[in-house]
Amino acid sequence: MKEVHCAICSKKVINDEVAMNLKVLGKQIGIIRCYDCLAAVMNCSTAKLTELSEYYKSSGCNLFKVNYLQ
């Protein structure tokens, strides 16, 4: 399993954080951010991003079905 780290703070990110970056910033993004740094960029809370992540997973979003950390 490979490790992916936040481009801003170097914190290890989880699969849902990678998927959320792709969902809200587009598939052509060059960097991945953790929920804390992504929340700062999007001017929202990390709780809101977690809530959105659960919503997208439960609604069947394909981005959240892929294992990016293989």
Summary keywords:
mainly alpha, single chain, 0% strand, 70 residues, 3 helices
Structural topology:
Elements: H1 15-25, H2 35-42, H3 46-58
User: Number of DSSP strands?
Assistant: 0
List the secondary-structure elements in sequence, H or E. HHH
- Count of helix runs: 3
Distance between the amino and carboxyl termini: 5 Å
Share of helical residues: 40-55%
Question: Ranges with pLDDT <50 over ≥5 residues?
Answer: none
Strand content: under 5%
Shape annotation: globular
Radius of gyration: 11 Å
* Secondary structure category: mainly alpha
3D structure, described in words:
Helix 2 packs across helix 3 (46-58). The mean pLDDT is 95. Helices cover 46% and strands 0% of the residues. It has 70 residues and is mainly alpha-helical.
Would you summarize the structure shown here?
46% of the residues lie in helices and 0% in strands. With 70 residues, it is mainly α.
